[in-house]
Amino acid sequence: MSFRNIVKSLIPRRLFAGIEPYGHLAEAVLFNTINGFPGRSLKVIGVTGTNGKTTTSYLIHRMLHEAGYKVGLMSTVGYGVGADISPQMHHMTNVSTPEFMRRLKWMRKQEVEWLVLETTSHALAQNRVWGVPYSVAVFTNITQEHLAYHRTFERYREAKRRLFTLTDRNKKGLRTGIINADDPSAEVFANSVAHPLTYGLKKGDIRARDIKLAASGVSYKAVIREDSYAIHCQIPGTFNVYNSLAALGVGRAVGLSKRQIEQGIAALEGVEGRMKTIDAGQDFTVIVDYAHTPDSFEKLFKDMKPTVKGKMIVLFGSLGGGDKGKRPEQGKLAGEYADEVVICEEDDRQEDGQVIMDEIAAGVQEKGKVRDKDLFLVHDRTEAIYFAVRRAKPGDILMLLGKGHEKTIEHADGEHPWDEVGTARSALLSLSS
């Protein structure tokens, strides 16, 4: 039994909800003390936000690695040191405190200089990263998400803002905060750190100019005062202009040269489950992406729609036990931009999958889509992917959204193995059999 569960067993359930963060805090204090505060030997870069955390973390990690640093990574997709990154098998970004301590101790043993730590609102609200001495904090953006847990947008934002109030390894306060100036909450985060450095397309200290979007990635000129950078990011989408700008900001904050920043960002070929193109010789495009919020949907659809020669087909579901309010919003966006929509399971957990699909479908239908004509409900995700692949024609683009890199899919009876890319590839290969 974990320390936190021991605390829970001693306190009535009706009372525990209000003090649960303190149970996590007590656990964090205990395990940090037992393990000698392993994070204190590292310089830590924390990345938080609703969307873009993982790609931004990978860009920063690769940039530092290419610059010659021994750099660790802990993210939603993977963890490890240098080029040796193992898949993250847990269905969460920030693992339990005991596992977190084990990984930090291992990184200390590997003599890691920098750690890039993707940090979620849950981990911050629950004090699970207490004892970690962040030196640089990155804020990508914040939109409506995780309200089933945080209950209000303000509480959700406050949880993320906590990253900017943590102390650095010298106990002198966070050195630098890298902040998306185009986000409506930018000022809240900038006011929470001693040395804010902002970035954006519309405003900010670092601005992107002459942006060129292509299937092979994004290229632009970044300007900050008298300095300019020629940036190429191999991952497509306007949102990756923002993600690479954030990485550039970190590069400046830690003292990398212009050449190190440019080459480091350009070196990352991709991130598992993020804008991953699946090519099995078919005459249409299939993309796997982790997009699962209304904001990420809208940005993705706006970028991809102009590139489609035929139909845009979108397949997705929504998390059981998550924010139910986002389901019809996801549906509306898919209904507005896509030519055909296939709704299926994502991770039903304890919810009725048909109810989840119907709630999404209500938003799709508001935009004029008709069931069994250009709106299809196929609950089983494997069956849905095979169905969508069979509907695609030459020149179409099929986007499989929501699962991305995840290695399990959650049903009422627990987690089951899952491989989105493998399933898509099998579906494509079945076309020729």
Please provide a written account of the structure.
By secondary structure, the protein is α/β, with parallel strands linked by helices. It folds into two domains: 35-267, Mur-like, catalytic domain (UDP-N-acetylmuramoyl-L-alanine:D-glutamate ligase, 3-Layer(aba) Sandwich), CATH 3.40.1190.10; 276-430, Protein-Tyrosine Phosphatase, Chain A, CATH 3.90.190. The chain contains 15 helices and 19 strands. An eleven-stranded mixed beta sheet has the order 4-3-2-5-1-6-7-8-9-10-11. Strands 12-13-17-14-15-16 form a six-stranded mixed beta sheet, with helices on both faces. A hairpin with a 6-residue loop joins strand 12 and strand 13 (285-289). Helix 11 packs parallel to helix 12. The chain is globular, with a radius of gyration of 22 Å. The model is unreliable at 7-20 (pLDDT under 50).
Descriptors for this entry?
433 residues; Protein-Tyrosine Phosphatase, Chain A; 11-stranded mixed beta sheet; alpha/beta; 2 domains; 6-stranded mixed beta sheet
The level of helicity is 25-40%
Biggest β-sheet: count, sense, barrel? Answer: 11 strands, mixed
Ranges with pLDDT <50 over ≥5 residues?
7-20
Strand content is 15-25%
Q: Categorize the overall geometry.
A: globular
Computed CA radius of gyration, to the nearest angstrom: 22 Å
Q: Given the helix and strand composition, which structural class is it?
A: alpha/beta
Can you give the mean pLDDT?
87
CATH top level of the largest domain is Alpha Beta
Indicate how many domains the architecture comprises.
2
Going by CATH, the architecture of the largest domain would be 3-Layer(aba) Sandwich
Number of helices: 15
Ends apart, CA distance between termini: 50 Å
Q: What spatial order of strands do you see in the largest sheet?
A: 4-3-2-5-1-6-7-8-9-10-11
